[in-house]
Amino acid sequence: MSTTFDQRAKEWDKRPLRVQNAHNIAQAIKKRIPLDKEMEIMDFGVGTGLLGFEIAKDVKKVYGVDTSKKMLEELQAKNSETLRIEPIFADITKEPLTLSVDGIVSSMTLHHIKDLDSFFQTIRNNLKENGFIAIADLESEDGTFHSDNTGVHHFGFDPQTLAKTVKKAGFCDVKTQRVHTINKPHADFPVFLLTAKKC
């Protein structure tokens, strides 16, 4: 999967739909979660930082985790003295990090994760007491969102079913909300945000 994203990294930020989606997700997270300058956040599947840099404006630090070196190179090129993300090249589904953070955000990455039970247990271990997750992804779709479904393990999600998976992994106060719709020529694809706290 990382090979696919490596090939697309240079052009990633040139898609207005993608940029707008990340912006809307960031705004929805900020409405739901009271971010502050003491927080350290992990952005899982950070890519070029479309979501991460928006979050970085309101917190102490963002760690950007991704399996694509090329995506992280594009992210690094956007870093500045005033706004930066620390890139981490890792596949935490295979080798979990020892990082301890106040919250974990993610945009449009979950459908690439095969074992959801294991994933949510893994990221729970990276959260401090009462830490939060804020994960956005597609609602259930027919498989036509991507032109190439290589590396796609889920054609979106039913938010209520996903909420049960999250609760089972040890999270409380699980909430879901539709926050955006991606309008493509052939169909509209709703995007939801799931938030929860570590129990």
Residue ranges: pLDDT <50 for 5 or more in a row? Answer: none
Oligomer: single chain
* CATH-scheme architecture: 3-Layer(aba) Sandwich
Number of strands: 7
| Domain module tally | 1
CATH structural fold name? Rossmann fold
- SS strand fraction: 25-35%
Radius of gyration: 15 Å
What is the terminal-to-terminal distance?
32 Å
Please write the string of helix (H) and strand (E) elements. HHEHEHEEHEHEE
Helix tally equals 6
Mean pLDDT: 91
CATH homologous superfamily annotation: Vaccinia Virus protein VP39
Strand order of the largest sheet: 3-2-1-4-5-7-6
Please describe the biggest sheet, giving its number of strands, its sense, and whether it closes into a barrel.
Answer: 7 strands, mixed
What is the top-level CATH class? Alpha Beta
The backbone outline, from C-alpha atoms, is: globular
Helix content: 25-40%
Structural class of the helices, strands and pairings? alpha/beta
